[in-house]
Amino acid sequence: MYRSHTCGELRKEHINKEVTLSGWVQKVRDKGFMVWVDVRDRYGITQLIFDEERTPNGVLETAQRLGREFVIQVDGTVIERESKNANIPTGTIEVLVKNITVLNESKTPPFTIENETDGGDDLRMKYRYLDIRRNPVKNSLIFRHKVGIEVRNYLSNEGFIEVETPYLIKSTPEGARDFVVPSRMNEGQFYALPQSPQTFKQLLMVGGMDKYFQIVKCFRDEDLRADRQPEFTQIDCEMAFVEQEDILNVFEGLTRHLLKEIKGIDITNFPRITYDEAMRKYGNDKPDIRFGMEFGELNEVAQHKDFKVFNDAELVVGIAVPGAASYTRKEIDKLIDWVKRPQVGALGMVYVKCNEDGSFKSSVDKFYNEDDLKKWAEATNAKAGDLICVLSGVANKTRAQLSALRMEMAERLGLRKADEFAPLWVLDFPLLEWDEETACYHAMHHPFTSPKPEDVKLLDTEPGNVRANAYDLVLNGNEIGGGSIRIHDKDLQALMFKHLGFTEEEAKAQFGFLMDAFQYGAPPHGGLAFGFDRLVAILGGQETIRDFIAFPKNNSGRDVMIDAPAKIDEEQLKELHIKLNL
Amino acid sequence: MYRSHTCGELRKEHINKEVTLSGWVQKVRDKGFMVWVDVRDRYGITQLIFDEERTPNGVLETAQRLGREFVIQVDGTVIERESKNANIPTGTIEVLVKNITVLNESKTPPFTIENETDGGDDLRMKYRYLDIRRNPVKNSLIFRHKVGIEVRNYLSNEGFIEVETPYLIKSTPEGARDFVVPSRMNEGQFYALPQSPQTFKQLLMVGGMDKYFQIVKCFRDEDLRADRQPEFTQIDCEMAFVEQEDILNVFEGLTRHLLKEIKGIDITNFPRITYDEAMRKYGNDKPDIRFGMEFGELNEVAQHKDFKVFNDAELVVGIAVPGAASYTRKEIDKLIDWVKRPQVGALGMVYVKCNEDGSFKSSVDKFYNEDDLKKWAEATNAKAGDLICVLSGVANKTRAQLSALRMEMAERLGLRKADEFAPLWVLDFPLLEWDEETACYHAMHHPFTSPKPEDVKLLDTEPGNVRANAYDLVLNGNEIGGGSIRIHDKDLQALMFKHLGFTEEEAKAQFGFLMDAFQYGAPPHGGLAFGFDRLVAILGGQETIRDFIAFPKNNSGRDVMIDAPAKIDEEQLKELHIKLNL
């Protein structure tokens, strides 16, 4: 038996108990006649004490030869610690060691195994197995496990069945690039790894498995941006015999359950807004509503004066930044530079200081008087002390710019609190999206997404205004889930394909087996998928997903620890009926 | 709202309630003035009734036009049924329909959606989404889900953390063939899909995550035998700071938990036998111990008489088949033919009938007297009425032949009861396995498996007799799990590589990153993996895994429903830096 207790378990009530501990050497303090060793495992750290008087011959000497990250096993007696350490749960005791075994030695690790390490990202990834010993990474992985268990228990209790769908499927030309797998047994043919189990979950609905979920790996061979992985995990769900409202209720319930069980937070407010409203109020389809700064549209009150910039603009829109009226001229100039950066792209910014005495000071005082500015303050809901920031131009772009500014100001003001959670449904996404490149409409979600029945008549005349029964779940400014009600009526599906520019043959070639299945009694159905990596990171109060993934890949899609991908044998290529084409 | 209740929910207490049901049409019985429709969903079947007197205009006519598998929604009143159907839980009621909507029509399905279908395997696989509507398949998938939930809850409660390991990893020349994935971003290089997360779980142990598990897909590009899938699911587990005993206890606990929670069975007996004992007693390293018929070795009592066949044999061994003394001469001849089939391969069989009066009648009466045969009966534990079947020859082969006979007789006698569960640990597997082809020893489990400390000294002299700290969990004659204690000492590992015929360079090339990791403080560790598909099938009392997999592949590795694998575009190949080599 390697241990009677873990290194995080011993307390005052264990004093005088004989114990056996195993773990890694965190730290050795050697005073010659006395040695203290901190031993660490997954559960914590316990201080060991060795001294000339009480420790048997040889044992103290072994302790003195220990290096960082050596694996040891000790037998000893729990004693009260003289100088308590209130920072760790085991801080009131120490173990007086009688016997020590070095289970394994360790080379000096390439970085410190501490909460704050001296190792850079590359080194940490190469030695990920050492990085995982560090609390921040270890705790993130344990946290991920807990979220997974809660998701499964909630959905299982709601009658959902986890069904495993295949990983070796068929490549489809739609959407992102597939990873493919050459088949040895089927010469010249390839499997594809799933980008999502979308078609399989719809087939399960046709199969009558009316509440399906799966926590499942998905694969996209896309050029990687920061914080995106070629393989990622999804909570994939689908329900049959449901309307949108039923789906929203179930997954609102899941979100509440997770926040309650994982974070101890009762969510009182779970608002729903439409896509249009999200764009008008926040310039963003995934608004962070932990703070205000809602957009105030100023066309009515700011146009038709002598300020040409505004008069020419499609949209004049502003936000009131709380407390920022105290910004100096220099600070404001810097802010104007910020909105003019290419990443934001505004041509300029008009500002109004709402002074504490109720007066205003703006950058456009020669065009607008106090009464005018008072109306601006009303439209942006500005209070005394606020700074109104106003952008103008083409509506969509201006909204996006102001959204960037809103997020930036919230960040600066500390309004994006990691321990505050504000979920939100965004509903009624547009069904179609105009693609400049191909000059035609594409399905915003996917071609099986159902339009709102009352909007079907607009498909011919105003396709861009047709709303879908599609919804996103947003948490703290991040889209954590999205889905839709699917089309189950074959006439409507045919109409959709027509509007997406598919001929009947093309539709059949691409979606044949699903369309076949739909001829045998497809029930009304819909669902959604959560990005599990992102969800876990946000619940964990983190911005990036990387430490919530045990073995992530870098931005070139490489695993630098195992050095993959890698070359394979000629023999192997031959068996797979392929050769390199470099 | 599509339904107020499911089709399996309504009972006597719902009588007079207004309800809405949705589901598929199972059956229509049309008597002209009266129509009964069975409507079915995941939860059951409810009888609907329509009649001229009570059903509104048009509704009866719609019911008359319904076809099998149409999707309908009905509103109606629950009424007491005149002729009750005791076979279904809803059999005391029916719903008098007021309103019907056809949600979707269906073509006539290619096979009947009944417990016993008229569809053959191929048709069922092609239309798997219809097959899943059938109770046997649907219930198998739901059963699988339940087992998964119980596995996760048990391990989670035991402190195990589910960690997702990557699917895009590195190809290794060891073991079975890998499926590979060409990398677009890393020209000429390939990922491999994992055959198991073996190295990653060992890295997690180095990383201090001392209790890991994962229910995970694994991939092997092997020529498929019946009931083997190219992608399969494993319950993968690993623990650090444990000895074999700790691991056995945890997974004995898991097995007991599953049998209790899933089957309601308390396992009183969970025996452990060694590999050697299993081979001697059952001729098999995964014996079915739901029944006896243990081997009796007869060398001592059957050799040194005048029967040359036995005298020349390395092993003479028999079993007592209960109650089979009543076999006719013809039946026994057929049995002898059976053991002589090439699949079994025995040259002949000697038999002894143990008559009810205590006398014996054997096929070798001219060589053996009653006293001799009495000793055979003692050695095989035969009772009056049993038939002793005796094989002889080279020990290993003869044991395998007798094992086949033992299983066959158990099958014929109905001793392999689907609702009886007899788990068993088989311990102390040989470390090495002689490979005729390469004329050298191979690791039986994998090269990181630890030999028994007391056997290390035999590595040089009797490598074939070195036992490993390796164990299999056997349930009803199936290996459902297997694992080992791993080597964590680098000197022992070097010794092992030497004995497996690796040079230092070869070992480094193949297992480099794991060996690197082991230099930084690898703890003692070990683990095991369960075949989840098989485990679920056995718990479900089935012989084959196929119906416990939602979308299985056929023996050519094809998914005939989606028609995968398939050709991909030239363009796609080009991007992946490969071309076909047909």
From TrEMBL, chains A, B:
UniProt keyword annotation of Membrane present: no
Top-level taxon: Bacteria
Domain Aminoacyl-transfer RNA synthetases class-II family profile: 151-552
Catalytic activity: tRNA(Asp) + L-aspartate + ATP = L-aspartyl-tRNA(Asp) + AMP + diphosphate
Positions annotated to bind ATP: R220, D221, E222, Q229, E479, G531, F532, D533, R534
Signal peptide annotation: none
GO molecular function: aspartate-tRNA ligase activity; ATP binding; nucleic acid binding
UniProt-listed InterPro entries: Aa-tRNA-synt_II, aa-tRNA-synth_II, aa-tRNA-synth_II/BPL/LPL, Asp-tRNA-ligase_1, Asp-tRNA-ligase_1_N, Asp/Asn-tRNA-synth_IIb, AspRS_core, GAD-like_sf
Lipoprotein keyword on record: no
Annotated stretches, region: Aspartate: 198-201
Residues binding L-aspartate, per UniProt: E174, R220, H445, R486
E.C. number(s) listed in UniProt: 6.1.1.12
Transmembrane spans: none
Pfam families (UniProt xref): GAD, tRNA-synt_2, tRNA_anti-codon
GO cellular component: cytoplasm
Keywords tagged on the record: Aminoacyl-tRNA synthetase, ATP-binding, Cytoplasm, Ligase, Nucleotide-binding, Protein biosynthesis
GO biological process, one term: aspartyl-tRNA aminoacylation
Cellular localization per UniProt: Cytoplasm
Family: Belongs to the class-II aminoacyl-tRNA synthetase family. Type 1 subfamily.
NCBIfam families the record matches: aspS_bact (TIGR00459), PRK00476.1 (NF001750)
HAMAP family on file: Asp_tRNA_synth_type1 (MF_00044)
Subunit structure, as described in the record: Homodimer.
Function comment: Catalyzes the attachment of L-aspartate to tRNA(Asp) in a two-step reaction: L-aspartate is first activated by ATP to form Asp-AMP and then transferred to the acceptor end of tRNA(Asp).
Protein name: Aspartate--tRNA ligase
Lineage, opening ranks: Bacteria, Pseudomonadati, Bacteroidota, Flavobacteriia, Flavobacteriales
